[in-house]
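FAQ: What does the model actually see?

It sees only this:
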Amino acid sequence: MYLNLLHSVFNTIFVMIFQKVLISPRIFQFAIIVTSVANMICLTMIIHNYWGQYREIKSKITLSLILLFLVFMVQNFIFTVYFLLYLPKNCIDIIGPLLFLGCEFIVLTLFLRGVRNQIS
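And it is asked to produce this:
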């Protein structure tokens, strides 16, 4: 009986901590902002590399890629401002943008690695 009571108390404390701290929308909001800023850093590096290529060889494809990455930069800036000003009520509303930004970060880092290998 004593072990059941102790287990119940620890279980209740763990659930309270898990609900208030680990599943807090603020943590996900922070993760979205950090991921969005990391995406903007990657985009800045990619744009810088492609701008150098564009100055050497005037190519419409390179210019189109620069414009595409600038659109992604604006999108990440809007995400950052939006989630700085707005805290969703629950975590379900944050999971979608966080997954989107995480996948975008993976693609941008792979793209940046390809651009770095191409220049070297």
